[in-house]
Amino acid sequence: MNLTLGLDEPEAALRARACEAIGVAREHLRDLRIARRSLDARRASGGGRHFRFVIHVDVVVEGMPTGETFDGASRTGRVKPLAPPQQLQLAAADVAKRPDRVVVVGAGPAGLFAALVLAESGVPVDLIERGGELRSRGRALAGFLNGRRPDPENNLLFGEGGAGTYSDGKLYTRVDHPLSHPILETFVACGAKPEIVFDSRAHIGTDRLHAILPALRERLIDAGVQFHWNTQVSGLRFHEGGGARAITGVETNNGEVACDAVLLAIGHSARDTWEHLLRDGVKIEARASQLGVRIEHPQALIDAGRYGTGPEAARLGASYYGLVCRAEKGAPGGHSFCMCPGGQIVASVNTPGHLCTNGMSNSRHSSPFANAAIVTGVGPREFGDGVFAGVDYQRALEARFFDEGGKDYTAPAQRASDFLKGRESTSLKATSYKFGVVPGRIDLLLPSTVRDGIARALTAFNRQISGFASEEGMLVGVETRCSAPLRIPRDPDTFRARDIANLYPVGEGAGYAGGILSAAIDGAAAAQALLKNPD
Ligand SMILES: Cc1cc2nc3c(=O)[nH]c(=O)nc-3n(C[C@H](O)[C@H](O)[C@H](O)COP(=O)(O)OP(=O)(O)OC[C@H]3O[C@@H](n4cnc5c(N)ncnc54)[C@H](O)[C@@H]3O)c2cc1C
Questions:
Q1: More confident call, 86 vs 111
Q2: Superfamily covering domain 94-284+488-532
Q3: 108 C-alpha vs ligand 1 centroid, how far in Å?
């Protein structure tokens, strides 16, 4: 049930409030757990702000409650029976098939949690990752920053932890899935703060993620997972018999690895791997995706827009936004994406000669900048037909922005007010982007649909956060890798790829997730399906 709590009220007050809401005597309340907590910072009807927490609680009570209050709360749906908690590991009785060996490709959230489910359910796993462990990845990134030459295998997208290792570590997802709870509990067991399990704006932060990943790695090694770092899968080996094709192993730069099944968790940037898969006969389809630019503001401007300037605002920390402007009457819409409060803009690059932005933050959200992507949807109408048309569209834009920035990862930038007026910015504000920015006509560099969607979105968002589209908003581009423009079709129940009996495409690179938590859920759910479904 949902309860409210003032900013200064202690959590203990929830017990009395819960009992009152369901008509249960205090002594009959056995347990109360916060399942979700969000901050309500909306304006009251008089215009002022009244801050409060909205808290969803799960309770355990002695006996089945009866009485008018409880019946009323049940009838209106205010209280519901709790579903039994789910586990990541399967009990032996639930395992219909235990393969001798499974290869998991990719050590991002989808691959790591798939490997965890399999290994802790007793299946030997080879986890193959083209990038290196955290430490060597960090060295490669420092080399990129100093020498302005990206390492194609160890970068912000590839290496231990996958694409979210240098991120805000936001863990909220629109997917309401029973596996999200055990996954969040796993992060906590590896060192994340307990609040991430229920906080509606839960985030871990890059600094903490870098302590959590080695702990998760140790747990996987203890469960028997064999890691193959700096090892790139470049092809699939098949047993060609009657019926569906079946994989017998994978080819890598370090030799072949035999297996009974492959969980493919390659993320949205392994463009070469998609090409290898297509060559090997894996069905791949084009799909619509989103792209746009990053926008950065002083965090103080966003805080004033979200929380006002009253005394309570200072206690609430760096504020967040998630804004949407719908497409209407043929005019494109836009939305904010991957907002990083108190963060920095980063070069999310794995291919030399391409520029792509993204954002990250530390756990304290302590930088004076707030950034987010502002993106609009693009599909075959924009990029044409063909499986790789969306990828080529991304590539062309990334190369255009790289060239315009001076070919050294300096990024073109434009003030939001100048973008809307269609003119170059004569001066730029300082940004958090470490490679630096130069004035550029982002309004002309972007395709017209994307430009128009972003322009409509900026205008709408300026009504919600004063100054959003002013000279204080710096656009830095280009942001192309918001989602995979491809999908590897699979059966919705068994998670198996079409026509290949033992291939399980998962996570963002297969087109089934968008974010750390949803990718982890997809990987874990696919691993469970692999064990539950007999051939
Ligand atoms: C800078 C940045 C910030 C982000 N911030 C957030 C955030 O705050 N919150 C959020 O929810 N999401 C965030 N995201 C998105 C999130 O990281 C992804 O949605 C998520 O990581 C997808 O998980 P995945 O496991 O499907 O793929 P990935 O994390 O992309 O992992 C795929 C892995 O597969 C490996 N791989 C690819 N091809 C091969 C091959 N042929 N052989 C071997 N290995 C291979 C790659 O090296 C990579 O490590 C961010 C992304 C970036 C880039």
A1: 111
A2: FAD/NAD(P)-binding domain (3.50.50.60)
A3: 5
